[in-house]
């Protein structure tokens, strides 16, 4: 049965491959991008591989919460429900740390945009018999050491460290949302996190995160071009888990979990975790997003 699937950051890399494979399965796929020309081109390329599939696009700058709200409104005006939301968009941002609306951009894109989109599209997901939210996290969360008095990440100068912290917050918010939905008796919507592994995409290539971190990104890209090693870090490998979480009956009803890049369920890092910290980041995100959740 065809399902309606929305994937953010789907004009390149893992998101594009995820969209293509899910379209091949006969799903109605809506890709999100920032550039309309690139989004149109991506839709055309996906349709070449999945000729019978319905593939459309939505445009939004996810650094801007008003733009997230506008995208959610456009989705709900056009579609009567949503089966799967894949929050794939994310970035390692360099030390210039641009800010949008006073929010540090790592937090805006990696944490607050998916948080707000989850909240705004929850009514659409509730109309599905098997609504699924998949939040992209990262294994870098295991090195994260968040300053809980600096939730806007203004004091952290390293783009890589801000990224790891943001992906830890994504896990905590996902766990919290899963419990909240259960408390509200919403049993037909699940929330899980995925880790794509080290893959060779353009991700991280344009960020200045220090010599050694930059070297890792460049090396991953180079390795993918070596015939013998090419599949080790291929983007196709990074898309496997999201495709699995979006389409497999094996995970139906499973919620609040973390899956690694081999589709395996595993425990996220807990050394920085406390229930109070989870609640604090949830409250922080809810406070910032509240103006966009008002009727």
Automatic annotation (TrEMBL):
The keyword Oxidoreductase applies. The keyword Oxidoreductase applies. Keywords: Oxidoreductase. InterPro entries: NAD(P)-bd_dom_sf, SDR_fam. Belongs to the short-chain dehydrogenases/reductases (SDR) family. This is SDR family NAD(P)-dependent oxidoreductase. It comes from Weissella thailandensis.
